[in-house]
């Protein structure tokens, strides 16, 4: 096991190298995962499956990365980022290559879901925890830059996948993503460094932690927001194509979510400094909920307005989503401290796994049953409103009183 850097190296250049590695690792794993909307239609056509059955591929993937985040988070606390990232690289390669061979969709649930799910679990939560441990004064900025990689990956992944699928088919595109993604994750493992030993009290036992009002608020809000968030990543490109938008521009709408999330993550620090991190975190959830009004309007108007309304939806959703992802590790650290941060963030993210597992298949079932998207979009919006309401009782003093 490598020797930890000294505590005096916090906020140093070594930390920023790890930020760069975190940025790239998140861009890679989320670029692959969030490109699934481009694979959705060709896979459904080849296997002859409906919206609900095909969406399970993505839902199971997201469930895996959220559920396994608690495992990878504890692993990085113990072993550091390098071995965790190497496991992620191996899983990504194996999952995508084997998915390119599948003859039945249910096999793809396992190959893609486990391969990409493990890769995201290794490239996201552990790196958030590592970056948080490298910084004190500039933690908010460092985390915002690191998680901006998610937005960049989202921006690039979906349109690149759509173009490659058009040229080579969805099976060969998986192989191309496997090769490129694996090489980049290995490079990240070489660069990433373990942070100094954090100071402060030992973390609460899990049994005591889950009884705190602050943890319950964070868990409930993450669950409800995840039920809403992953619906557009699966169904938005298909909705746009059915409304008359060409496939590549339709996939690019998901990329717009990524661009807006980058802006949201990088700009959110100024608002957090002004009104507080927790309150800004709450505002991010409210923004996410309100965004679905634009998609609901796009499902109800003529085709001339569809693309502009979907772009509005993608921008507003991306800003809210970006604020949520950028601030959650900082809010968790503010409420519970830095010790054991990786395991704690991963534990909260299991709620996201449940939401991701249930949200898209339920939305797909409603789409198949009703023959349209309106009720699914309205349901996602209500889940977003519920997530915001679940956060309203949250404040910093609440946790300390519960201890």
3D architecture notes:
The protein has 403 residues and is mainly alpha-helical. The protein has a single domain (14-195, 204-402), classed as MFS general substrate transporter like domains (Growth Hormone, Chain: A, Up-down Bundle), CATH 1.20.1250.20. Helices cover 82% and strands 0% of the residues. It contains 17 helices and no strands. It is globular, with a radius of gyration of 20 Å.
Summarize the structure.
Helix content is 82%, strand content 0%. With 403 residues, it is mainly α. Helix 2 packs across helix 11 and helix 13 (277-298) packs antiparallel against helix 16 (374-391).
Spell out the blueprint of helices and strands:
Layout: H1 13-33, H2 36-47, H3 51-67, H4 69-79, H5 81-99, H6 105-123, H7 125-134, H8 139-168, H9 170-191, H10 206-209, H11 213-242, H12 247-275, H13 277-298, H14 306-336, H15 341-370, H16 374-391, H17 396-402
